[in-house]
Amino acid sequence: MNFTRWSARLPGTQRRAAARGTDPGTPPASRGDGVPAARGEAGGGQGETARQTPDHQEPDHPEPGHPGSGRPAPGPSAADRREAATPADGSRPAPDLERPTDDAPALEDFPVREILGRLPGLVALTYGTQHRVAYVNDAYAAAFGPRRAGTAVAAGCPELAELGLLPLMDQVLRSGKPRTVKSRRTQAGGSYTVTCLPVETHAGTGPEGSALDGSAPGNGGAAGAGVLVHATDVTDHAEAVERLRASERRHRETAVTLQRSLLPQELEQPDDLRVAATYQPGVTDAAVGGDWYDVITLGAGRTALVIGDVMGRGVRAAAVMGQLRTAVRAYARLDLPPHEVLQLLDGLAAEIDASQIATCVYAVHDPNEGRLVYASAGHLPILVRDEDGTVRRASDPTGPPLGTGGWLHSSGSIALPPGSTAVLYTDGLVERRREDIDEGVSALERALTGATGSPQVVCDRLLRSLGVTAEHDDDVAVLVLQHPAREGADAELFHNAALDLLGGVEAAPRARAFASGVLSSWRFPVELRDLGVLATSELVGNSLQHGTPPMRLRLRRTDKRLIIEVTDGDDHLPRRRRAETEDEAGRGISIIATIASSWGSRRTPGGGKAVWCEFALPDRPAG
Fold first, then answer.
1. 8 A C-beta contact, residue 279 and residue 294
2. Which pLDDT score is estimated for 382?
3. Spatial separation of the C-alpha atoms in residues 424 and 480, rounded to whole Å
4. In the chain, what is the greatest distance between 2 CA atoms, to the nearest angstrom?
5. Cα-flanking dihedrals φ and ψ of residue 469, to 5°?
6. How far apart (Å, rounded) are the C-alpha atoms in residues 27 and 423?
7. pLDDT in tens, 503-562
8. pLDDT at 123
9. What is the end-to-end Cα distance of the chain in Å, rounded?
10. Distant-in-sequence, close-in-space partners of 504: CB < 8 Å, separation ≥ 6
11. Quick one: pLDDT band at residue 283, thresholds 50, 70, 90?
12. Residue 312 near residue 356 (C-beta atoms within 8 A)
């Protein structure tokens, strides 16, 4: 049978044909969209042959669908439809996505009210400019209670007001465009993601063209227009997000606490310097970095200043930082030159974690020299601001970062005269995305030019000038030291005196006489003056016996201590040992250690050594 002859009588064909603007009774050839004639003849021949009687006579009963049969024609089988739709060359035709299949129901066939009622999301349908309630589904009623139709949302649906939806619904009604807000919280604690969709109802106008809520058409929104509110309960998701954020905050607080606990809780304040430092963790994530700093008094008025940065973030970087800081303090107690401290630190960094790269600068200030002697392992240069506002940059070459190995570090120096300020810092202060780091250092130089005041004030001004806020995305550490220019009564508390010693039996008496006269001129109490003379005699005698020329005695007083130091050309450092009763030597250092507040020795850069001791001065009366 030819399918095209019966297609007009198949159920639903008339409706689809009308939608296409064609007549189902029109022959396919005249419409131009039927099955090709050759294929139709072949299909018809097979169908008629199958239904003929053995003697090729027409059957007594007409075929269903034939005029006079009284029965509707059966639809073509699936195999027949596939055969009819298959081109002659055997290829599969492209599907016509815009034309519905024979068994596809129309959208109007779906019960919309039943669908909305069964949705797990909350649905509320409103109409008019006052957003009066037309319908709420079962999920909405279960969450917030039933709502009376015709009630204005502002008065009858407080939950929508809590979610801040009233202005949004007005906007949707005016613009005709949907809007969505995410994770809004109600006072009851629930969180919802809400979408507001513009809708138009055919029953939206009264008999005189007014809106159902009584407002005039065109008074903000078309008559019959409304808003469909669909809310999804995301309380569990919001609570999970909040728990995650709380966990991240606790993790960050733990990391920051660890970081700060590894930094010095209180900076040592040398007699000759004023020092301040600041550390600000970045807020990019829950991890902190490995920025660190330290101030270490070495004795004899000398001070070590160190700042470093362990690359990476998190507890691991902070732990490596803590180990390096502890190691630096241990090496500093050996009173080694800066480049030797970095050489030891380089080997230790490779042993701690070869994958962690750290930069560091270690500097030593000697008030007798008026300079900063430093060594740098891949760190940013030290900046020094003179009293007149001129900023100088330490330009000596630096070595690679710690942990690389195979590099011999060297020391450089930069003048630090009275009235000057030096700044040590990490890259978080000057490094910015899409900007060369040299530009950041230049910006810091310009900021330092006008940064005056105490060291802490300078720290704060530099942070503000470089745009470092509480939302900065990288850790920042800044260490500021000032060599103050003292005048008046304050200057009288700081004095220096030195004497070159020649070998011979007269060297010790000359040293004792010199020390007695200087200490008397500095108006020290008699007891302290006698202790100073005894310490001078022991240090000079030890140098005469075990050292080599040139020898020099240096006395220095500050507002807090008296320092006595003797240098000579021999690099053998003395050590304290227990002297037996019959021993004639070996008691000098023991005597020094007994009478002085502290003592020590170090090798000097040009060869030789220095042995020193300190006496704490009594506190000055207030006022």
1. no
2. 96
3. 6
4. 156
5. -120, -175
6. 96
7. 777 889 999 999 999 999 999 999 999 999 999 999 999 999 888 999 999 999 999 999
8. 94
9. 124
10. none
11. low
12. yes
| Integer Cα distance of 403 and 356 in angstroms | 8
In total, the chain counts a number of residues equal to 623
pLDDT at 97: 59
Strand ranges of the sheet holding 420-425, from the earlier edge strand across to the other edge: 274-280, 476-483, 420-425, 383-385, 391-393
Which residues, other chains included, contact 291 with Cβ-Cβ below 8 Å and sequence gap of 6+?
Answer: 279, 307, 308, 309, 310, 321, 426, 428, 475, 476, 477
> Torsion over CA of 446, 451, 452 and 457, rounded to 10 degrees?
-160
Residue type, 212: L
| Amino acid making up residue 301 | G
Instruction: Give the type of residue at 352.
Output: I
Q: How would DSSP label each residue in 40-70?
A: HHHHHHHHHHHHS-TTSPPPSSPPTTSTT--
Distances from the Cα of 478 to the Cα of 209, 276, 455, angstroms: 73, 8, 10
- Tokens read off for 197: 């969709």
Cα distances (angstroms) measured from residue 565 to each of 255, 538, 588, 615 = 44, 11, 14, 12
At CA 25, angle to CA 21 and CA 30, rounded to 5?
75
Q: Is 532 exposed, middle or buried (0-12, 13-18, 19+ CB in 10 A)?
A: buried
**Whole-angstrom Cα distance, residue 560 to residue 494?**
10
**Residue whose tokens read 């502002």:** 154
